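Slide 14.
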Amino acid sequence: MFAEEIKLIEDKKYDEAVVKLQSFLSSDNEKIRAEVNYFLGYIHTRWDYKAKKSKLAMRYLYNNLNSSYPHPFAYVLYADVAEDANVAINYLNRGRQLFPKDPMIYMKLFQLSLDKNAVIETIQESGLNDSILLGKVISYLLSSNQWDKVHRFIFRIFNGNVLSAEDNSYLRLIEAYANLFKNTPNYQKAQMIFEELISWDIDNRFAYSHFLGLIFSYINLENYKKATELFDRIPISNIIHDFDDMLYPLGININFESIYCTIFKKITNFFNKDLLRKNKAKVLYSMYLYYPSEIYDIYRYKKSDALILSKYLKLNFNKKVATVLFNMRCHFGQFKEAYEILWDFLKNYENPNDSDIYISQIFDHVLEDDLLCIASYTIDCFQKEEFNEKMFVESIFSEMIIRMHSLNLFEHIRNISQFILISDILDSECAFECAFAYGKDNHFRSIEIYEGIIKREPNNTSCINNLGVQYEHRGNLYDALDCYEKANTLHPSEPIYNNNLKRINKLIQDELELDVSHIIDIVSIDSLEEIGYTIGFCKKIYSINDKIMRDILLRDLKECAFAIVAQQDKLASIMCGSIIEALLMYKIVENNISKYDISEISKKKNAVNYNVNDMGLNELLFVAHKEKLINTNSYHLAHYVKDYRNIVHPAKEKRIKEKINHENVLMMWSVLKRILNELLA
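Slide 15: predicted structure.
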């Protein structure tokens, strides 16, 4: 009769269904009114009906239940909305009497009743074998360790239902455990079932619960050899766990915590004199206790469990054990100990990032004092241990350095980073922090790292600006100016970049004014005479007959002397060399030598008959020495001038990393005066 209304309900068109159903409430037919009240009550209990009202649901369902035509599911729905639990239970008991084979009524009664054992007895007497209902009963019996009753209800499910292979094997597992822990254990029966399950469960869906049950059976049956062999087959890992991450067949939830406590105590006592296996049993149990913390944040383990794993790890490195122990240490706030575990990975050439480890657990929470201990431990490991540096950089380095940077521990950053290649620092996530820390000490690595970052991030204004600061600290003002201009161009609204640019321009201007002032202060007749630039010295040039050459040399000699006194050392070194070269060439040509055999010092094609006008300082010195125009001492001293003169080339100065200083220039000036006196005597 209500096919249209039922279709509307199924299609979730509840408002339309309500309108149609309400038109039947005034019907003279009690059965129709009862059915309509049930449907309306049902609609008002639906979570997805926006206009639902619990009071209306109660009224409609009440009308149905107190009619001559109550609906069995109305008792369940009424129990859900009833404000008084005792009233709900009273109605469920009435429904149970009217519908003694309806499993839903029994299920709701079992859920609400405080005396669940009484309801279980009622279910037992009813003869019901609904697998879902019986599954809920078994779950309760398991949680209260009523193993004998578990055994009985399992047989009820087996006898009254067609089960899948998975459901059947799960029930068999529970049956086996019931045989272990019921009042009169049947270890042989349990052994048989566990052995069957191990053969069937090739994917280890039961997480070694059948192994542990069988080992427990073997020990109680005094079959110690098989117990030991089976125990040895269990790997040391965190794969022994409850079935919380599985869909429980038939809704039966079994928690192994108390069961495994009993089993592992038995195993530990059994291996009391076998320390290796005893320790393995302790490790497996500790890792079992740890397991739910990974997924559900349920922390069953204690510090004593961490100690068990720590002792094991000192003797046998195991990635799974190390991972569990790391997370335990972090949970207890033992960050130094957790950090040492990371090094256990590295020392065994394992990358911690390849395990279920979040290194941030340490560095997001560790306090400064512990962090300093971690830094000291790290340096000690670098100096004493063998490990893969790349793995350290990939896993630990960045997290540690960024945390240290946040606490301004720049010296400690430098102490650790000194062991890391620049290329590896640049590949890390903390290159900026390393450069910044080195910059605090004006360390050359700061410039290398900043330059490396800017090469791949040319618009990184923070690095560009900081590189300018490093140049400025080293006195490279024009390099600093270039950086500040770039940073300011990229980010003109940043006050720091603008201020730096203004400051560096003023510094350059001040330095220029200071240089000019300094030159004015130091250049005088006395200072020129002090280096030997006198009228008498200049008069020697007048012995040169070539007036043009004489005037050029007088001019260059004056400029050279002024450059020396003004401490313009690079300019002075260039002029010393060129004046000596000009004097040598003049004197050689004056001696009617236009070509000369220089094959002794040169491999040029025409070295046997080389044109004097094409000779450089080295060849001119060779000819002058051979022709006795200068003595041997002057010849060797002049080579000093030649060598330093070559440094004037910027590329060579950079390559050999040597600069001309004032002392070098004074030496070159002395050589110049010696040769001039010797040639123009």
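Speaker note: Residues 457-521 form a domain with the Serine Threonine Protein Phosphatase 5, Tetratricopeptide repeat fold (CATH 1.25.40.10).
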